[in-house]
Amino acid sequence: MNFEKLLEGLKHPSSDVFFKYGSLVFAASVVGVIALSMVVLVRGAFPALTSFGFRFLTGVNWDAAAGFGALPYILGTLVTASIAIIIGVPISLGIAIFLAEMAPDVIKVAVSNIIELLAAVPSIIYGLWGLYVLRVWVANYVQYPLQNSFGFLPIFSGTSYGLNFLTAGLILAIMIIPTVASISREVMVSVPVSQREAAYSVGATRWEVVRMSVLSYARSGIFGAAVLGLGRAVGETMAVTMVIGGATGASALPTSLFKPGQTMATILVNQLSEAESGSLQLAALLGIGLVLFAIAFGINIVAQLLVWRVLKVQAGAVE
Amino acid sequence: MSNYSMRRFKNKLALWIGALCAALAMIPLVSILYDVVKNGASSLNVDFLTSAPGVIGQAGGGIGPAIQGTLLLVGLTIIMGVPLGVLSGIYLSEFGDNPVGRVIRFLNDVLAEFPSVVIGVVIFTLIVLTFKSFSVIAGALALSIIMLPIITRSTEESLKLVPNSIRDASMALGIRRWRTTLSVVLTTAKSGVVTGILLAIARVAGETAPLVFTILGSQYFFSGLNSPMDALPIRIYRLALLPYPYAQAQGWGAALALTLMVLVVNIGVRLATRGRLYTTRSRA
User: Fold this and answer.
1) Domain range summary for chain A, segments of one domain joined by +
2) Which of A200, A245, A265, B70 is the most buried (most CB within 10 A)?
3) Is the dihedral of CA A73, A74, A79, A82 positive or negative?
4) How far apart are CA A179 and CA A121, in angstroms?
5) Contact B118 A286 (CB under 8 A)
6) Measuring CA to CA, which residue among B203, B199, B250 is closest to residue B66?
7) Domain ranges of chain B
C-alpha cells in the first residue's frame, strides 16, 4: 500500500475507497479480538501473578490459605493431550493414507462424509456419551484388567470408576481424529502427481509409492496436522470436564492413569462462574486462562505455518 | 517368500491397516448416534420440548427455555457475526493480496482454531464482571467471536472461486468496484457463502464451554437480554450432573434434540452442495 496513493484517495474519496477500507476495518477486527483478549487476561490475572510470581506455574495447592498454583492443571492438560496424540495421530494417518491413496472411490466418499460428521457432533454430546458409555468401557475392559495384573505399578493405581486421565485422553483422541485425518489427507492429495509417477515408473507398489513419494514429501504438512490436533486437544473442554473427575490441588497431579484429575480448560468450567469477584481465586483462574491462551496461540501459529508452507509450495508448483 | 510376494503382502497389509483405522474411527460415531437415539427417544414429546424444567429432584418438566435460549442466541449471533464475517471475507478475497491481508488471513486461521473456552473467559471478564450479571448478550458476543473466523474463511474461499472474467465483465460496464463485489461477485458465490454460514451456525449451536460463564443457564424462559438464560448444551451439562435417573433420561432427550438440530443442518448442507466445487476444510 502506497501512502501517497492513499492520501490521494482520501482527497478525492470515492465509494470504492470507502468500501475497501471499510471492509478492511471489519477484517482487522480479528486482530483486535486477539489483542483485546491478551490485554483482558493479563489485567485480570495480574493480582495472582504478582502475589505468587513464578510459583503460580510450579505450585500445586489450590485454596485461599495455601495459595494458588497451576501446575497440576498444566500437567493434566499435557498428559491428556499426549494420550490423545499417541492414540489419535496414528489412526488419523491410517485413515488419511487410506482415503488419499488406497481406497476405491465409493468407499472414499462414504468414509470421508462419515468422518466429517464425526467433526460436527458437539463436544457436549461426546461428553454425555463419555460419561455414560465410554467410561464404563474403560473401567471394565481397560482399568480393572490392567489393575488386576499390574496393579502394583504406581501409574495404574487409583479407584476411580472410569472417571480419570485415561478416559479423558481417549475421548480427546476420538475428537481430534477428524481434524488430523482430513488435514493430513488434504496435504497428501496436494503432493504433485509427478512424485507418484516417478515411483510407479520404477515398479513400486501402491504402498511403496505412499511411503517413498507421498509421506516423505508431505512430512512437514502431516506434522502440522498433528500439531493442529494437539491444539484441539489442549483446548477441548466440555467432553473432558465430564469424564476427568474434577480433582483439585495436589491430588489432581497426574501420577496415575486411573486417578481423577483436571485440565486447565476443565477447572475454568468447574470454578470460574462461581469465583467471587475480586478474589485471588478469580485472578488465579484468569491466570490459568492466560496460560491456556498462550499455549494455544503458540501451538496454532506453529501448526498454521507448517500446513501453510506445504500448501503454498503446492500452489507454486501448479502455476 | 520371494522379495516380490513380500512386497505385495506389505501392500495388502497397508491397505487393510488403513481400512481398519477408518472402521475404528466410525465406532464412536455409530455408538454415539445409537445411544443418543435409544436413550433420548422416550423423553422426546411436545410437552418435554415446550415446558420449563421442574423442581430439581422431581421428575417432570422439560427443556422449553433451553430450546428458546439456543434459538435466541443463534439469532443474535447471526445478526452480529454474519455481516462482520462476510465483509471480512470480502476484504480478504477482493483486496487481501498484500502483507496486511496475509497477516489478517493468518490470524484469522489462528483464531478459528482457538479454544472456545478462552473466548468465554475473555467475555466473562469483559462483560459479566463489568456489568456484574450473566447475560444473553455476553453469550451471543462470545458465540459471534467464535463464528467470525469460520465465516470469514468460508466466504473468502467461495469468493475466490468466482472467475475474474465475471469481475472484468461487470467493471467493463462501468459498474463500480463495490457494486460489482456486492451485486455480482457475492451473488455468484451465494451458495458457497450460505453453506459456510449454515455450517458455522451448526457449530456455534453446540458450543457449551463459553456459555457456562456467560449466560450461566436458568430454569426460566427468556426474561431480558441482560439476565441469565438457558441453552440446550448447558441444560444437557446440568442434567448430566444431577444424580437422578429422570435427569439422566432428560439429558439424553435434550442431547437427541441438539444432535438432530446440528446433524440435520450438516447433512442437509452436504446433500444440497454435493458435487459442487466448494469444499469446507473440515475444522468445524
Assistant:
1) 71-318
2) A265
3) positive
4) 13
5) no
6) B250
7) 67-231
Per-residue pLDDT tens digits for A135-184 = 999 999 999 999 988 888 888 888 788 899 999 999 999 999 999 999 99
C-beta pairs of A102-106 under 8 Å, 24+ apart in sequence:
A102/A206, A102/A207, A102/A210, A102/B14, A102/B15, A102/B18, A103/B18, A103/B19, A103/B22
Spatial CA neighbour of A28 closest among B146, B121, B84, B181: B84
Cβ contacts of A280 within 8 Å, gap of 6 or more:
A47, A48, A51, A64, A68
Residue A130 backbone dihedrals phi, psi, to 5 degrees: -60, -40
Largest CA distance in chain B: 77
Q: Which residues of A touch B84 (CB under 8 A)?
A: 26, 29
CATH 2.160.10.10 for the A71-318 domain, yes or no? no
DSSP B133: S
Look-up: residue for cell 489462528?
Answer: B110
- In this structure, CATH architecture of domain B67-231: Orthogonal Bundle (1.10)
Suggest the residue from B2, B7, B13, B32 to mutate for an interface test with chain A (most A CBs closer than 10 A): B32
All residues at 6 or more sequence positions from A215 whose CB lies less than 8 Å from its CB, including other chains: A97, A188, A222
Nearest C-alpha neighbor of B80 from the set B176, B168, B204, B218 = B204
C-alpha cell at B93: 478475497
Residues in chain B: 284
**Residues in CB range of A132: below 8 A, 6 or more apart:** B35, B39, B248
Nearest CA in chain B to A267: B117
Three-class SS of B87-109: HHHHHHHHHCCCHHHHHHHHHHH
CA A293 from centroid of its chain's CA atoms: 12
Residue bearing cell 450432573: B241
pLDDT tens sequence across B194-250: 999 999 999 999 999 999 989 999 889 998 899 999 999 999 999 998 889 899 999
